[in-house]
Predict the 3D structure of the following.
Amino acid sequence: MNDCVSIVIVSHSPEVARGAADMVREMVGTEVRVAHCGGNPAGGLGTDVGAILRAIESVYGPKGVAMLIDLGGAETNSEMAIEMLPEEMRKNVVICNAPIVEGAVMAATEAAGGASLQAVRATAEEFLS
Amino acid sequence: MAPDRLQRLIDAASANIAAHEEELTTLDRAIGDGDHGANMRRGFAAIEAAGAEISSLEFGAALQKAGMTLVMSVGGASGPLFGSLLMAMGKSAPAVPANAAAVAAMLTEGIESVKKRGKGDVGAKTMLDVLVPVRDAIASGDDPIAAARAAADAGLAATRDMKATKGRASFLGERSIGHLDPGARSSALLVHAICDVLEERK
């Protein structure tokens, strides 16, 4: 299982994050580890740096982690969480510039084939072009 | 810094944010997603809840702890933005700055961290449009407290006619013109709260 890039999904909405993760598992299977989080620390819409950190750590492996995130604060909080990781993990976690649901499915599909983090990210971001 | 002075700074900042939560929400509803008031109130309430621990620390460590508390509790982009501001200021100034020039130098470190975190600069209708003129005023004014207050108010007012190019407000483009920036407003509220304590008005 550690042979695959893992996926972390971060949305302002816990339901969107969970739903996107469900779609990945349904369409790609379970060999790619997927973590998701959504909502602010008080449970409302928003994102939570601590929850993002825990999500990354829960699926982190030697091939790295590709993150799919939604708007604004999700990006700032995800970048903050990445910076708070131990230095050796930091360079193995990337944020994909891709739509959250489509990007997660595309990234996981690529990851399932054993692709590198760079290839997973490129595949997710291809969706934009 | 004496623990009671740090505690008074925490209380004043938290109280001023809480007193203006509705205003911040209204400003953010106009050009953002309407969560800035609640997010900032939650962040500063968390700092207040940790007030005894924070105010027992050395000045720089206290700022860093307060910044980290914002990062972990706010839930929006303003957490890492205001959090990075305080953490970088605290890192650059282990002890209370000795004079206005040292305060300005500390603020410069914070401002650089905000620019990096937000990938922005002055003129984009953000908190930087208050922080940078406040820093400049502190560096150059004879009366740094009065100068900081005036620069905060002028900087905030100037955001009204700016077009947002950063954050959620940038989605609105031209339609962001005519509204004050909520992050600039909360920055001004913090500047005034700090000045109040420094002037012993509270």
User: Anything to note?
Assistant: Residues 14-28 of chain A form the longest helix (15 residues). Helices of chain A lie at 14-28, 49-59, 73-84, 87-90, 100-112, 117-126.
